[in-house]
Amino acid sequence: MTHLEHQDAFVETEEVKRTVPQFVVCSAVAAALACAPLQARAMRHAPASVAGEVLNVDGQPQMGARVELLGPDATLVARAFTNSRGYYSFQRLIPGRYAVRTVAASYLPTLKENLRIRSATIVNVTVRTIYDLMQWTPAPKRVRPTSDDDWAWTLRSAESRPLLRWQEDGTPELVTNGSSETTAAAQHRLRMRMAAGAARGRFAQSGGELSMAAEDQLRANRTAVMSARAGAPDGASDAGWVETMLGFRQELGVAQLGSRSINTVAAMRSDPMVGMAGESGLQQITVRGWETMQLLQSLDAEAGSDQIFLRLGNGSSVVAAMPFAAVQLHRGAGELEYRLATARPEDPDVSAIEPEAWLPAVNDTNGQAAIERGLHQELGWQTTAGPARMMVVVYGDSIANPTLEAGGRLTGAGGMGQWMMVDAGSAILRGAGQGYSTTGVVAQVESNLPAGNHVRLSYASGDAMVMPAVTVPMDIVTILHGAHARHAQMYSLALSGEMDRTGTHWRASYRWQPEETVTEVAPYAVGASEPYLNLYLRQPIEGQHDGVDGRVAVLVDVQNLLAQGYQPFVTTDGSRLYFAQAQRAFFGGLQFSF
């Protein structure tokens, strides 16, 4: 699922409890005196471990960050580098007091002191820039006297807040005290984001649009996320679409199983402009529940299910339960993973806080409402070497109701509404092709670049649906049944980063595969780029309104900029349809963060 922002926290998951057998009074005293040194020695030498994530203030994992475990005398005990999910771990430690120092490119070094490390201790780290610190740190409650001996080298915030310390080489370091991180001030934080703009070319998402997202860190181990989007097609004053999402995550610690988390997400879409067979109206609800757990020190697991309900205005409906699971085995910098999935999200490349990321693709199958579904299994291996990560996956798919998407306006009846789901707002139609099975390979290499930039190269092989264009008019049933699976290959390049001077966040990607293919190769691949040329820009504009500091940003998101991969068809009623892996789509607007 891509990913939510984590608050810095550490959780002690096990307490050693002592019991003294009760005999007669004199033998009890003697036994207690004899066993106390043995119990103390056992506590000192019981195996301990520490693990966690390294994120920035936006919740983005920092791959390749250097994490150092320091002893009480500041000596280096161990060193590790984070993987692509920002994860690190240290195993087989002696319980006691430690410090964790983190260094990530383009961010201030961070030192967390006075941490009490025991069995399965979690220490998450948030890295910040100087600008982030200025925005996040409130004004001090009182002026410190100039007689304090640390005023010249420490920028102190309000009580229980971080310190900015200058090291001997002149570089700043963000310092926190582990013993104060569970205070009420550190447990609760609410962040909000609003956006207004216009979208074109996406199914059930065209016209003017307003969106709101909020994330609330209820406690150090509980997070709630909510988002909502609403819009109306151009010229439609009495019809509009709505998407909402509500998610909840709770981190747990169990002595026998290690760390665990319970997650629940509910997403809903309602659009009166989508329908088929002459009837409009779409309601779609997905409730996903899953649990992640640490079975052993090097073995993680995840299991859950999607409960899906879909209903159209013509009375056609779908109710389905679609499970998924994954198991990861960690060995040093390497990871072996098995994953099983049955549902594919609408758009796996969007942020996990967007409702559409949790809604499976819907279509019309033989005149009935349907969802794209299947059975996906994969076995993958990945490893991290410095700032780079490499991954190889072997997969097998059995896909039913693959979505065939076309753009175009209907000029006649011709049975079109009986065989394709129509979105009158965006002029996009969806039908389904014949199911197919395939096997293939996915390979990916990604790395951090200087100045906070990132690059990812991907390759995939497997079957995809093809629809070679024809010039002879055909009925829609013949066109849809003419789509068939064929082996193909995919190559993609994705670049992203942030410009230091302007703060511009940018992302550019290009994904190529044969143009006659109208579905993606390896559709269940995690982290795959969108088809063809895509650009994303987020340009912050600082400002102040009514004395309250806020952040305003301009957003531009374009997909399939060059309008590649379109396969034209003419139906017997004179309609022109253009099938493609992805329609050219555009979103532009303003974003407000609080």
Describe the structure.
The protein contains five helices and 37 strands. It has about 600 residues and is mostly beta strands. It has an 18-stranded antiparallel beta barrel. The two termini are about 25 Å apart.
Features:
mainly beta; seven-stranded mixed beta sheet; 5 helices; disordered N terminus; 594 residues; Porin; Immunoglobulin-like
Sequence-ordered SSE layout with sheet pairings:
Layout: E1 10-11, H1 25-45, E2 48-56, E3 66-70, E4 76-81, E5 87-93, E6 96-103, E7 110-117, E8 121-123, E9 125-127, H2 130-136, E10 154-156, E11 163-166, E12 172-177, H3 184-187, E13 189-200, E14 207-219, E15 222-232, E16 241-254, E17 258-276, E18 279-296, E19 299-312, E20 317-331, E21 334-343, E22 362-365, E23 368-371, E24 373-385, E25 388-400, E26 403-407, H4 416-419, E27 421-423, E28 428-432, E29 436-449, E30 453-466, H5 476-481, E31 484-498, E32 505-512, E33 532-545, E34 548-559, E35 567-570, E36 576-579, E37 585-593
Parallel strand pairs: 2-8, 2-9, 7-12
Antiparallel strand pairs: 1-8, 2-5, 3-4, 3-6, 6-7, 10-11, 11-12, 13-14, 13-37, 14-15, 15-16, 16-17, 17-18, 17-27, 18-19, 19-20, 20-21, 21-24, 22-23, 24-25, 25-29, 26-28, 26-36, 27-28, 29-30, 30-31, 31-32, 32-33, 33-34, 34-37, 35-36
